[in-house]
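REVIEWER CHECKLIST
Item 1: Sequence provided? yes
Item 2: Single chain? yes
Item 3: Sequence as submitted:
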Amino acid sequence: MPTARKKPRTYDSAKIRAAVTAQFGHVAAAVATLTPEQLARPTHLGAWTVRDLAAHLAWIIRSIPEAVARPEPAEAELTVRNWPFATAGIAGQIDELARETAAGEELGPLYEESATRLAELLRVVPDGRLLGLRVGAMAFGPFMVTRTVELVVHTDDLNRAAGLDIPIDRQALAACTRLLADALADKTPGGSVELRIPPFAVVQCLEGPRHTRGTPPNVVETDPLTWIRLATGRTTWEEALDGARLSASGERADLGPLLPLMG
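Item 4: Structure as written out by the authors:
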């Protein structure tokens, strides 16, 4: 007999808005300290330099008021859970648009303007306001949850490329971890493997015998940042295993072929 599907996870709007604001503030403070030498460094993101990456982080926030300014769609097409899979087809378009938007602009004023406009929007835009996005129509509240993914992933990218230690807001990290864990559960529904990402998420995935009590026969466990890197293609399953950042027990506990979920 099929097991009833769990209700979709909910997110606290006030905490998400505060997390996005805090994480962007952390990034802005760090970017202000970057030297020309650091800005010119390569990243692991194709041809992007550190400056390109820093500009993209500002664009992530700058694009929010641009979306609000467009005509409101009639109905939502995307949820938090299916957003990761909708982004794959327009990655190149987003890259090009972000480069054009930030081309020639000084990072300091770009970040200041983006932070100011974000603060203004968060005071007046309700969660239910629909946005016409390039990936499809989405409500403002769920879209803000997806901003935690973009900010956390690219903050980690920036830390690694520029040799920084930018803090990652706990609420932003939690939301990012949970969204990507739920995406895996949606991509491969089932109950034969349990993915544990303490302290933020536990999900089951893959068709097969469902675990009901005791220790599951197939368990994968890792930390939030390693999970995020796996889910977004920043590291591989083998690298995480070899580096002892991941444990996998059970004959079905190899999630490598299912990753990454998004690039």
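Item 5: Key structural point noted by reviewer: The longest strand covers residues 193-197.
Item 6: Recommendation: ____
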